[in-house]
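Curious: why these numbers?
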Amino acid sequence: MFARLSYNYDERYMFQFTIRRDGSSRFGSNNHYATFPSFSAGWNLTNENFMKARPEWLTNTKIRFSWGKNGNENIGNFQYIALTSSGNNAIFGNGENVVIGVKPSQLANPDLKWEESEQYDGGIDFGFFNNALTFSADYYVKKTNGMLMTMSLPAYVGEAIPMGNVGSMKNSGLELEAAYKFKVSDWNFRVGGNLSYLKNELIEYGNEAGWANLDGFQGTGTISRAQNGKPFPYFYGYKTDGVLQNQAEADAYNGKYGTALVPGDVRYVDVDKDGAITEDDRTDIGKGMPDWTYGFNINVAWKDFDLSMMWQGTIGNDIYDATRRIDAISSNLPSWMLNRWTGEGTSNRIPRYVQGDGYNWQSSDLLVYDGSYLRLKNIQLGYTLPKSLTRKVFVSSLRVYVAAENLLTFTKYHGFDPEISSGGTSLGIDYGVYPQARTWTVGFNLAF
């Protein structure tokens, strides 16, 4: 069910109130439905009397505010009940009477309900030079409560752990957008761009500990983690402090921490300052979520020619390179292993190579790389034939074009693709994701 009320007073004050009630069969009968209201208001300063004396170059000024709630039902079906499975046979009597048994395959959670997000947004819009130049800025705060996740229950319950409404998360950020269009003789230009900043924080994971280990990888152990007060998720492992270059450095490190390392091994940092290198020294070593996401597009037209391109990129995100099987005794190695330590002064990052190395390649910042990139997502050049030619063959318009996708990528990451498609708890983890293809297209648009 949906209802909306809008009010506009003299194109100066605008209000809108919306309420919707959604139902989903993915929740139990006592929680099928949830109500989600929203409210927005706008103030068009341009039409106020005190703005009549504004300069001619200022075309539009508008202030906006909105608040609202929405819901999420993105889980599998029948998560609220105890589904059953067969195949658990029982034998009665003298062993000749075999009965097929049925048991619950997961615990029930009849209280499962909608995940709810509440968001505030404040923004301002400007238009200049008869709206040839436009600019918008928004600041938002979004808090999600009752996140739909697997509940934190002990393993001795014996069945699959049910979904539950556990945990809360907060996202806040800034979004900026600008566009400018102008004309010079036969040339027409339009340039637009957007920039957004995001701060993510896990408020409450929903278990007593306030943290949980998430993804793992062969030979390295846990590589991502959820923890109250931190971004969700973040990369988890040891911090390193270079490579031991000679025997004197190795003896000093071994004497301080009680290890038995040799030149070419990695120095792990004693984060908790207890005088030993243990699992308790694992910490935050990066995150896959970008601080900044940006894009810009350019459109140019000259007579019958047109050119368009769109660039997109991120800043402030990391990539965890989980493409190499650390647990394999021998395997093909990436090319960057050619820069490994082979003697004093040869490398202070990549350790010596040892088959079946279980020390140097534990989960650490050695596997974390800068994931920022800039990519030309698409570009297209077209030409529209003059109507004086096309009308002779009963054609209204004919445009031919050549286009490309993912033509250029600028990044420091050595892997196949910095635009990692994995999400959820694997955000920013490169398990060997298939790279996006560079595609060329030649075509035409024909209208009669």
Q: What stands out?
A: The first strand starts at residue 2 and ends at 9. The helical segments are 247-257, 387-390.
